[in-house]
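Key idea: predict the complex, not the pieces.
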Amino acid sequence: MVDTLTPSQSKVVEFPYQSNSTLKVVAGPGSGKTLTLLHKVYYLIESGQIAPNEILILSLTNKAVDNVITRLFDVFEQLNEKRTEEQLKEIIGGLEVHTVHGLANRVVIENEGIINVIEENGWRGLMKLVSEDFWKNKRPKIPSIKDFKRLFEQYKNQKTGTKDVVKKLTDIMENCGVVTNEELIDRASRYLNSDVVPESTAQTMEYTRNLKDKIKVVIIDEFQDLYPSLLPLLRRISLGKQLILFGDSNQSIYSFLGSNKEAMNAIEDIHTGRDFHIMHLHDNFRCTPEIMAAATRVIPLKRKEMNDGEIEKVCKDKCGVKPIMQNFSNPLDELEFVRDQISQLVCASAHLSDIAILTRTNNQMQLIADHLQSYGINSHKLTAQPDWMTDSRIQFLIDLMKVISLSHREESLKRENFVNRPWKSDFSLIVTLSALKGATNQSIQILYNECLRHDISLRRYISSVPMSDWPAAVTNKRKISNCVIELQKLMNNGEFLYSDDPMQILQKICTFAHEMGFQMLQPTSHRDAEQFRQHLEDMYIILKLCLTNKPNDMPLVEWFLHTHFEQSLSYYHENPVPRAGSRDVLKISTIHSSKGLEFPIVFLMGGLSWFHSISQLEDNVLYVGMTRAKNLLYLLNTKHPGLDYKSATRNIMSNEKFWRYYNTDLNRDIPADFASAIRRYDCLQRKYDGFSMKRRPFSTLSVAHNNKLMRLIAHIARK
DNA sequence: AGACAGTAAGTTTTT
DNA sequence: CTTACTGTCT
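Result:
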């Protein structure tokens, strides 16, 4: 059955099930980790030891989860042709595959109802509630949202200093069902730890209980990404179960979340006195020996292993081309180099979709995408989430919908004489009012304090207490009041909350936002406006999708608010390139998001050198980036003591030997006529010559919001 | 108070 | 390399 696997892979797959034990599988890049994992799952089920619903597969990123889910069906189908599609679906449907946060979310929701994870706009709103002197003697004088977030966490843990301020904020969050990601994990592990489940709710807590009692095997994919604060949760989940860890410590690139060295050691003996086994998958089926040799030199520990003769076995033949390294002092040169190389590669036998450009930051990613776009080269961003979901303007609109929906719910509960506290709408309303032009921090603070004093919801206070009775210090009373009145109009208007027409819903909410003139929705440029329009369109698609799968007894708006996150993720997963005109587009991703993926050709952008010095990536980040490449690797502006800079750049386009190797490796036909590549390239160059710098508007070259590049270009222009 | 020299950070993800 | 803040001196 497992004859397609290597001996070491088979050993992992056939390792016996044994409760209360840990198996750690160290799997280097390209070693067939996911394949082995899936075979392992299949083996557990097929051998009758474990039922599908007794297996829990966890990972840290959505990407890794997607990866497992996507390949599940293929691998299972291949392994057993006897089963019908229906049976396979049932087996696969029984498996639990989640991100750690996704799992925590489910547990918490089951125990305390719908909760929301606080987002950028939420932090901005909270920030408005702390007084100026909170920032006195603090690190940054002009605090950003990020600084605020950091300080908030810090104070929460320390429980010293401005405790009362933080306490006030956490109370609001508590009341409104808003949590931070850390809190989400904490709460989940609390619910799993509390062994006493109240009898009355025992039946409904099925999911939580199953996690504790039913699951027998917990598989953690990419264990190197774990960080200390996840450990309590994982400890509880793996209690008494077989814990199988897959990963590679050299690919640990999330050390900024906490010390994962510590976490990695801790997870090995997560329960003391446990049976512990470790296995290695050494073969590398992905990279060429040339790429692997360079990547190995990047990690000090690896270099030592190599000397000890304990190196990964690369299973591919030499391709004859070493990684191409080049440094630039001018970012435009770098972008042009990339563009030129891509032209050459495509004119030879590469497809655009073979190529991936990996960057360190999201900003760089956007910059490169824009530049290539200006030449008519389409690219697809491999982000963890679709763009529109991270657009704070869209999130703001969703917040507006939340205020209306939650307020409506509160009103109807009140009519039926239920308890009125807590008012979940307060949080979203604070976020909304904070964005209102003219509503100062102070006004919102005072108003909110008044509400606390009168034990009344913020919305209700604003709408029912006459403005003349508001504290005098509140400015712009009319504007604030008007905003809430308009919100209430939407709330009482059945055409919004109970509408089944996605366009109508979108229109109503946009009209409202427009009339209120929210500052943050004002586009700063034409480009900005176009982007917003596109994101609105994407939101419309998800609204339409919600309409097709919503339960009959739930209004569309409510269903959307509850499920839009998951729905968009799965929609995005199934339609990875929803709007690109041509199918053949190149891929752009941050190094972090590219983990677990592989590409025939990789451009690794160390950093667009804003500085004259070339940025040095962390060892592991560089290693991950390099080992994504199957056949050809470019290292641009990448500095590392282990790398040898003297390797010469060859003309790739006319390297027949390489392209023979390349096409063979990808199971493609070898082109008969290599000379035509050069002809095609010449033709393409002539076309690009038409794109003179003058004709290309500056705004497409750089990004309006990337001031740094603008300044740098100005600097270069002066010279 | 104002000028000047020295220092540390910048980024990456999770619903 | 640039920014944003600190500390020290006059």
